[in-house]
Amino acid sequence: MMFWLAIPLTVVFYLFTRKLARRLKSPLINPILIPALLIIGLLLATGQDPADFQAGSRPLSLLLELAVVAFALPLYQQAAKIRSQLLPILLCCSLSVLLSVGTTLLIGSVIHASPELMASVATKSITTPLAMSVSEALGGIPAIAAGLVIIVGMMGAIIGFPLMRLAGIRHPEAQGLAMGAGAHAIGTGAAAEVGAAQGAFASLAMVVCGIVTALLAPPLFHLYLWLTG
Q1: Which of 76, 100, 184, 204 is the least buried, fewest Cβ under 10 Å from its Cβ?
Q2: Does residue 48 sit in the same domain as residue 78?
Q3: What Pfam families does its record include (predicted)?
Q4: Average pLDDT over residues 188-217
Q5: Same domain, residue pair 122 and 148
């Protein structure tokens, strides 16, 4: 039964939460977090097999890649601004990756985490498919990497803009870069809801950080293993 209800429930919960979020203007009413919690609660309450729900919602999962491709539109619309600031953008994204991976490995060394766990956690700030691929190449567990990516993205979408307002960061381009670099596709979607400039620069940061992470994470991880071995 849950197989056939998977897509209708997902769409209804999403549309309801999206409408509620626009009305209440609260970062806690997240169109990704709330439907996920509702579906988890429903599965637990009814005792349904999560595998049936996952199989039924597979067509929606296939749309994820198309959704990522659609981020090219705001990039095109903001192409002139992006070209004029390309070097600072690349520098910011590269520093973001170094900080993300570096602090993760540093914390891991302090708490004596296993190399397998660290390989799974190091890719937490890039899109799910890329994070799973990179973490697996490093000897990590793709399922853990995917779960952390989703958690990081949701947290970024919820608290990202409130934190930036608190810190006095009002520049649309800076806001977009921060959301794309720190909260990948989920954060980019939240940025696009705020404005075209935020969405475009978040899209660019997401792509650049994904590429830079794929290039830098392996040598940084092997350096970590050498230093802690």
Answers
A1: 76
A2: no
A3: LrgB
A4: 89
A5: yes
Q: Residue 3: its pLDDT value, please? A: 76
- 74 Cβ neighbours under 8 A, 6+ residues apart: 192, 196, 199, 200, 203
The pair of three-digit structure tokens given for residue 6, joined into one six-digit string: 């998977």
Same domain, 49 and 82: no
pLDDT at residue 65 is higher than 80: no
Q: Which of 103, 151, 96, 100 is nearest to 128 (CA)?
A: 151
b (16+ CB within 10 A) / e for 25-64: eebebbbbbbbbebbeeeeeeeebeeebbeebbeeeeeee
- Is 50 a member of any domain? yes
pTM above 0.85, yes or no: no
User: Residue 147: is its pLDDT beyond 90?
Assistant: no
Residue 62's pLDDT is what? 77
Are 125 and 169 in a shared domain? yes
Regarding whether 115 and 7 lie in a shared domain, the answer is no
Provide the 10 A C-beta neighbour count for residue 109: 13
Q: Look-up: residue for tokens 């070209």?
A: 83
- Fill in the amino acid letter for 85: Q
